[in-house]
Amino acid sequence: MFNAIPTAAHTIWGVLAGRLLMSKQSNKKKMQTLIIGGVIALIIGYGLSPITPIIKRISTSTFVFASGGWSILALALCYWLIDIKKYQKGVLFFAIVGMNPLFIYLFAHVGGADLIRKIVLPFSNAIFGWMGELNAMLLLSAIVLFFLWYLCYWLYKKNILIKI
Question: Is the pLDDT of residue 126 over 80?
Answer without folding.
Answer: no
